[in-house]
Design a protein that fits this description.
single chain; 173 residues; alpha+beta; 7-stranded antiparallel sheet; 4 helices; 31% helix
Length: 173
């Protein structure tokens, strides 16, 4: 009986070691590296594309079409403009990772038309909370259809102008 237990333990250890080798041999996902964000020109109102941020908001949301950048690192970067009912505007330059459902703010706009670097430089999960609702809508219906990043700046602009990405529209209707 002890002999069988000893053989079983030896096979278990060998099997575990073999699984590690097998896992490591095929676990070739590379570590993600973020490209350095290049700040765009400050947004101009004639380049604003409004998008539907859902019924939960009294604000208007825009993306500056001239600022959209689809990066080789899997991040779509863009200027986001939020306008209150009184006409006050908040401007930010942001990034979105479709693969991980995260967003990052790179810079904030100032009233004099310049950018200042954001003090929060980490990626944040776009959660089901009200402050990220407009980001979630932008990701789901325009920039990350079916959780994959758009292929180009032009594709993102077409989706914004159409009111929804065609891949998402085909599933809704």
């Amino acid at each position: 009986m002890k002999k069988w237990l000893l053989i079983f333990c030896a096979l278990s250890v060998t099997g575990c070691a073999g699984n590690e080798i097998f896992k490591d041999g095929f676990d070739n996902e590379k570590t993600w590296l973020e490209l350095e964000a290049q700040l765009p020109d400050y947004p101009k109102q004639e380049n604003f594309l409004e998008y539907d941020s859902g019924s939960n908001s009294n604000y208007k949301y825009y993306v500056d079409e001239k600022s959209i950048q689809v990066g080789d690192d899997g991040v779509i970067r863009f200027s986001l403009i939020v306008e209150s009912s009184a006409g006050a505007m908040n401007v930010s330059f942001e990034g979105m990772r479709c693969k991980t459902n995260e967003r990052k703010r790179y810079a904030l706009g100032q009233n004099n038309g310049t950018w200042i670097e954001s003090h929060v430089d980490d990626w944040q999960l776009i959660q089901n909370v009200s402050q990220f609702h407009p980001h979630r809508e932008l990701a789901t219906y325009y920039f990350c259809p079916l959780k994959s990043i758009v292929g180009s700046e032009q594709e993102a602009i077409r989706a914004l102008k159409a009111g929804m990405h065609p891949r998402v529209r085909s599933l809704r209707y």
